[in-house]
Amino acid sequence: MEEILDLVARLGPGRRIVAILGAPGSGKSTLAAQLVAGLDDAVLVPMDGFHLDNRLLEADGLRGCKGAPETFDAAGFVALVRRLKAGGEVVHPVFDRGLDLAIAGAGRVEAGHRLVVVEGNYLLLDRAPWRELAGLWDLSVMLDVPIEELRRRLTARWQGLGRSPAEVMAHLENDLGNAELVLRESLPADLRVRPAPIS
């Protein structure tokens, strides 16, 4: 965290955008929240607000792979980051995990927020249109967590949400496939860190 804060302090004046990315279960949401909590003029914008609605996923036969790159409004997300970069107030959708849907207009970046921390899986994915994001980040931080540690964390996550063993296995298969994609097809980040295992 100290290294990241030091890099953020060097970014200079004006609106700055920091990307915190990694595979599902890597701890990016936790790190991003901690970073924002430590700064007075920072705000968090999760990528998850751009999940496509389950009705669209079902219509396209993608419900079973929710969380894969094609299950997001990627073009809409790129447009949001461009708006954030331009400065001023920006309203954005927020994903409600309990309801399993995105809520439009539920988040706001104020004009006075100098630092916007964006977190998500595909912030450096080398696929269209995701790759357009790479040039928009003032700083990118990739969390590099081994697959076996991800498996352990994700198993605990889904079990903690009361899923059946069969549901846990289905979620794991999907999440680990997405994790391998993030690790394999992400462009280089400015900083790559390997968090300590969670006991």
Automatic annotation (TrEMBL):
Annotated transmembrane regions: none
Pfam families assigned to the protein according to its UniProt record, in alphabetical order: PRK (PF00485)
Domain Phosphoribulokinase/uridine kinase: 17-171
Domain of life: Bacteria
Gene Ontology molecular function terms on file: ATP binding; kinase activity
InterPro entries: P-loop_NTPase, PRK/URK
Designated name of the protein: Fructokinase
